[in-house]
Amino acid sequence: MLPFHIRIQGLTSTLSAKLAQDDLHVVKDLELPTDEPEYLAELIESRNWGPSVLIVDDSDIAPRNLTVATDSLPHINVMPVYGLNVYSMLKHDTLVLTLAAAEKIEERILHHLHSITTDREASFKLNQV
């Protein structure tokens, strides 16, 4: 397992790369008017989100219409924000965040980047040069 500060840097780099490539999209919520997979597939196609999509929400429980619609679509995954990782973001072409998930990610990354624990961790790091 990688050290914590390396994982934070990987997360920020991957989010930045997705944004620069126009593969990061923020939506208000995940409510769909229907639970038909065809509707979701057409929505993804019309927005040019690519062949594989990772949808991230701030809660564990996704809306019923979304979960039913994604059951038969193998290239679309739904994940809570606390499970977001670099591998999952790189595995999918497009990352779709809810507004609440984006705010939670921003808050956590800023907290860890500006915390004083990085100074305390420096004494425990091995010099590998």
From TrEMBL:
List keywords of the entry alphabetically. Answer: Ribonucleoprotein, Ribosomal protein
Q: What is this protein called?
A: Large ribosomal subunit protein uL4m
State the family it belongs to: Belongs to the universal ribosomal protein uL4 family.
